Amino acid sequence: MTVLIEQPQLEVEAREIPRETNELVLDGGFAMPKLESHGGFEAPEINSFGHSFRDYDAESERQKTVEEFYRQNHISQTYDFVKKMREKYGKLDKLEMSIWECCELLNEVVDDSDPDLDEPQIEHLLQTAEAIRKDYPNEDWLHLTALIHDLGKVLLLPSFGGLPQWAVVGDTFPLGCAFDESIVHHKYFKGNPDTYNPVYNTKNGVYEEGCGLDNVVMSWGHDDYMYLVAKENGTTLPSAALFIIRYHSFYPLHRAGAYTHLMTEEDKENLKWLKIFNKYDLYSKSKVRIDVEKVKPYYLSLIDKYFPAKLKW
Ligand SMILES: [Fe+2]
Ligand SMILES: [Fe+2]
């Protein structure tokens, strides 16, 4: 379901998206009022065009959709499920294509969890990348990371198995150890069999303190898939880039500070870059249009620098 929301341009650009631990936010940072607000739900404002741009029914309908999304996500993402998905998709036997070809392919994906994305996905990628490039002109690896961070959403396409939304987008979290309270809609883990498995339901679970996040099984989605693709195809991007790709939806870590006991010193260093990146990922959903053809040569040169011409997917 796509809810189109009319917004004056300035408001969108200036909008800050606060990210509290229990806030409803689907991938990419679209913030929603809480469903069970304790008197805190405020009727939508009249916008500067003089008419209401979010009627209550549409908003509450959307909240239900998001809540149902996380219910399914939390009961279905188990340690076993992720192991199976990593094995299946880790074969990289779907097709061969370049990074840019994948950017174009992603345009076919309609992320119906995200009403802010009424423009092509490639524009979201390039908006994020260009915004970072402006502020960090020398970190070319970060520009490319921004361009590719959401490419794993091709998992939604029939040619990639047509995975359901709950297995592609949304906040991510570790499996194989206890579900931290800071995970959005934590209550739905009551329906997850791992909650009752004594091997998985302690603070460290199957892990050891300081084992490093790379050794931690994360809930399956576009983040982990793109990480596998980049790594297995031998990217020369630095470890901070791979860290951003794999953990950019890991909000319990970068907003709530959960699971830091599993991190190495290198993880902690990389987390600094992830926090920088995330600001841009959230803010980039503006109506600033990008001239794709104009910036394409620059990004093609970065792809050439850090990736083989064709990648296995
Ligand atoms: Fe994104
Ligand atoms: Fe993402």
TrEMBL record:
One of the GO BP terms on file: L-ascorbic acid biosynthetic process
KW Membrane (keyword) present: no
Entry GO CC: cytoplasm
Family annotation (Pfam families): MIOX
Amino acids binding substrate: 54, 111-113, 153, 170-171, 248-249
Co-factor remark: Binds 2 iron ions per subunit.
Enzyme Commission number(s) from the entry: 1.13.99.1
Record bears the keyword Oxidoreductase: yes
Top-level taxon of the source organism: Eukaryota
GO molecular function: inositol oxygenase activity; iron ion binding
Protein's name according to its UniProt entry: Inositol oxygenase
Gene3D superfamilies given in the database record: Hypothetical protein af1432 (1.10.3210.10)
Keywords tagged on the record: Ascorbate biosynthesis, Cytoplasm, Iron, Metal-binding, Oxidoreductase
Family per similarity comment: Belongs to the myo-inositol oxygenase family.
Pathway: Polyol metabolism; myo-inositol degradation into D-glucuronate; D-glucuronate from myo-inositol: step 1/1
Species assigned in the record: Handroanthus impetiginosus
Cofactor: Fe cation
Residues involved in Fe cation binding: 124, 149-150, 222, 248, 281
Xref: InterPro entries: Inositol_oxygenase (IPR007828)
Catalytic activity annotation: myo-inositol + O2 = D-glucuronate + H2O + H(+)
Subcellular location as annotated: Cytoplasm
Main location group: cytoplasm
